[in-house]
Structures are given as C-alpha cells and as structure tokens.
Design a protein that fits this description.
DNA-binding; 6-stranded antiparallel beta sheet; Jelly Rolls; 271 residues; single chain; sequence-specific DNA binding; Homeodomain-like_sf; alpha+beta; AraC_XylS_family_regulators
C-alpha cells in the first residue's frame, strides 16, 4: 500500500492543502471498508484504479465517477474498495476551491459529483492526461499546471473568509468564532453567509468538524492507542469527557472505544 502527500507551490499554498497519491500493488486480496471522520477539506479526485463506492453517512451509497469533486463532509463516511487502488487528488484549503473556481460549496455537502458535470470538457482532457502520465511526479505536475492556469484566470481573490477558514484549520478548530469576528470587525451575518457559500457549512460547525478531524488524526498517529484520554480530550479543546463523547458520537456514529477498535483492526490488516 502506497500513500504519499505532496506540498503545493508557495503561490498556491493559500488555496491548496496538498496533493496525494494512493496506490496498491498487487490488487487487494479481499474488499476492505475504510471509515473516515469528516476532515474539513474538499478535494478533486482522479481515479485510475478500479471503481469503488462511498457511503456518505446519509444512507446513500454512491458509486464514484472516474473524476469527481468531494463536497464538505458533515459526518463520517465509508469507502468500500476492492481490486486495484490508483488515484491522485487535490486537497483544497476550506474555502480554496470556491475562491479559485467560484463554486457555491453549500450545494456539494456530503456529495461526490462528476467533475465533467461541473467543469465540462477541460476536466475530461485533464483526466486523459493523468491516465497517460508515466509516473506520479508527472501527474502532480499536471495538477499544478491546471491550478496555475486557473489562478491566472481568476486572479488573487484571497479574502477574509479564506483567512478565517484557514485560521480555523491552523488552530485545529479550537477557536471562538464570535470573538474572532468581533476582533476583525466583521459583520457576523454577512460573514456567515459568505462562509456557508465558500466552505459549505457554518463557521461554528466547521470549527467542530476541524476539531474532531484533528483528534482522529492524533489517534491515527498513535496507531489508535491512547495513553491518556484526559490529556487528549483537553488538548483538543473539549470541556470534559461527556462533551467529547457526545461530539465524537455525533460525527462518527460510534462511541470512541468502538471506533478505535474498528480502525485498529483495519490498520493491522493494511500493515
């Protein structure tokens, strides 16, 4: 199993979190189900492996197109994968895709949408180039060139909404939105409308998503073994254990102990 992240060029960094490549050789001996909490990021994905399905947490099982846009996830989702894995993706900063492409991300929440339906022929051409690319570095270069062209077309339109959304990411969701908007002299209602348009959820809800995403990332780094729950809970900004369990269960659909057990079994299998 091969998974690698690539950093964008510095001029794209305000809009792009990373590029990633995920592949496996040989093919999977048996199907696997991978469960992910909401990450706080949206992406464009180009799949050159076998087709797979996504359970988006709303009792909808979606067969993903060969090239698709992922909207902002508001709850845990599951990937059912079999055969050959091969995909490359652009992971955007929370408001980055809306700023670069003018999309209303509220319309795409919890969804996987065919990129050709959104952008037309240019995406068909980009996917064909990715399929024909000889190696990973060439695929990443194609994505960079595509984004550079879009940035030149759109111009530098990074605004306060981008800044605040990125700040929520940097602070791992541990932030008081009301205090922040007051400090920046932002009209709260106007800001909330703009944030919903560019990110797909409200600022306060996004902070909650980012906090649970950070906590789950910490669990994964520790290979799902927790030495001190209290330290982890308070580090991630939860008031107490009951607050943490309530939030965790709402976003993942499982209590922490069961979620960790399921992911530990998957980690051992993939290792």
């Amino acid at each position: 199993m091969y998974y690698r992240k690539f950093s964008p060029s510095s001029h794209l960094a305000p809009y792009i979190e990373c590029y990633y490549v995920w592949e496996n050789k040989p093919t999977l001996a048996q199907p696997i189900r991978i469960e992910s909490p909401p990450t706080g990021f949206v992406s464009m994905v180009f799949n050159y492996g076998d087709a797979y399905t996504v359970d988006n947490g709303r009792h909808e099982v979606l067969r993903v197109p060969p090239a698709f846009l992922t909207g902002q996830a508001t709850q845990s989702y599951k990937l059912d994968i079999s055969g050959r894995i091969g995909m490359i993706g652009i992971v955007f900063k929370p408001a980055g895709i809306s700023t670069l492409f003018g999309l209303s991300m509220y319309e795409f929440a919890d969804d996987r949408v065919n990129l050709e339906d959104v952008f037309g022929r240019p995406m068909t051409q980009l996917r064909e180039q990715i399929l024909e690319a000889a190696h990973t570095d060439q695929r990443v270069q194609l994505l960079e060139q595509f984004l550079n062209r879009q940035l030149l077309k759109k111009g530098d339109s990074f605004d306060r909404t981008d800044f605040i959304a990125n700040l929520i990411v940097d602070r791992k969701g541990i932030i008081n939105i009301n205090e922040l908007t007051n400090d920046l002299y932002v009209c709260r209602r106007q800001f909330e409308r703009q944030f919903l348009h560019k990110v797909g959820v409200s600022p306060k809800y996004y902070a909650r998503i980012r906090r649970i995403s950070y906590l789950c990332a910490q669990l994964a780094r520790q290979r799902w073994k927790v030495a001190d729950w209290h330290d982890l809970i308070y580090t991630c900004g939860y008031y107490d254990q009951s607050h943490f369990i309530r939030e965790f269960t709402q976003f993942t659909g499982k209590r922490p102990t069961l979620y960790i057990k399921d992911n530990l079994e998957l980690t051992n299998y993939l290792s």
